[in-house]
Amino acid sequence: MAKFHVDSIQEWQSFEHDGVEYDLGHLSSHLVVFKADKQDFEFVVTYGLHCFTKDDSGANIPYRYEDGRHGQMVCLERYEASKQLKGIIEKLNVATIYHTEGERFFTMSVLNGATGLLEPYKVCLAFFREHRLLRIHVTSAYFARTGEGSPDTPINKKGFSVFKVAMDTQNKPKGQCPKEVRNRPRAQK
To answer: Which of 126, 130, 137, 159 has a 20 to 30 A CA-CA distance from 101?
Structure first.
């Protein structure tokens, strides 16, 4: 049952592979509030398929998960790391958000359960308004081994706080969001 009036998957269905049940309840939609001096900002947060899937990752299981737009193979490394996403998003008020032409993202050091090492974890976000709600959709999250935010490629962009992004989002026309947000639930096999 949908918790919020948003056009995105709000509860990801668990799936079974090789006798193991994989629960995705940690990626259910939720509210997050960032408290500022003058105004609090409340966002409805949803998560995308790429938070726990990636074709040809080297950590795949042979299970293809579909979200209504497309499907990808489940990546166990991303799946395990995704269990930390809700807590990471709730602390977004202390992160620096970077904006590139195609995405907004931040990185932070997170323990990778597969390697046992602290590694840079890149979280890609879409901020927008939908039905009078401020929204965050986590489009993807993964350990950054190449590209901006990886150990060998520092981020050379001006960063912003979630409060600046929230104010900008509040002033944008509603309905401007990336296509990845408009996923529809599809029953898993």
So the answer is: 130
Task: Look at residues 179, 135, 144 and name the one whose alpha carbon lies nearest to residue 43.
Answer: 135
**Dihedrals phi, psi of 110, to nearest 5 degrees:** -135, 145
Beta bridge partners of 121: 108, 143
Domain ranges of the chain: 24-181
Q: Are strands 71-75 and 60-66 parallel, antiparallel or unpaired?
A: antiparallel
What is the rounded distance in angstroms from the CA atom of residue 54 to the CA atom of residue 70? 12
| pLDDT of 24 higher than 90 | yes
Residue with tokens 């029953």, as numbered in its chain: 187
d(CA 165, CA 182): 21
Which of 101, 97, 94 shows the shortest CA–CA distance to 122? 97
3-state secondary structure of 168: helix
- How many whole angstroms separate alpha carbon 1 and alpha carbon 76? 27
Q: What average pLDDT does range 5-14 have in this prediction?
A: 90
